[in-house]
Fold:
Amino acid sequence: MLAHILYQLSRIFGDGPLTSQDCQRIIDCCSSLSFSNQMRVWTRLICLQPILKAINQYVPTVPGRIIDLGSGYGVLSCLLASSRKQEILGIEVSLPRISIAQQITKGLPNLNFQHGDIANVSVEPSSTILLIDVLCLFPNETQQHILSTCANKLVDNGTLILKDNTTIPKWKFHYANLEERIKLFLGIYSTPTLKRPNYLSPDTWRNLVIKSNLKIRAEFFVNSLAPYPGIIYICQKS
Structure:
């Protein structure tokens, strides 16, 4: 029943390949957590439909390494490691989140987590790098630095997927901005951040990507009923 509810909620966030069986797998994996931590995992799970769709469409399943920068509770990394044979590495600055991620992903030999600040971390050359809802926590110059570092670490024909919120439509922007400011005020990321999220306009995101020696292969808004103005960029090294 719970898996079906989470699956139906996930459809609010857009179309994608996540199934009720996937939801049940995550529910089973986090059953030993406190109820509050289970809720955190479930909340992240239901947001992943459009992200998984983009990954399935643009990231081939050939051998290689996928790095999930700012991997949080490890839900996305867990789903990828369960469905792909590629090596998955999640990098996260919050030790409590890494602890949760490690608990829910036991038994996946192709998945590991590393403690690190993505603004300074050094990563190995990789075929795919994911930046999912993390760049908004940094000022423009740090965003540029992170993207440039990622571009340098992509192998030839490698892919970077950037997903974050943007400034349109305005009603979604104002809601998402308020929600994120509350989260930042409460310090939920366990690391110093901006006082407010740095959501950029589509043109500004685009320019930031291009200045980082990346070319945009595809760009699309997240089509969902949820009050979040998501935008996704599929990038490759220029």
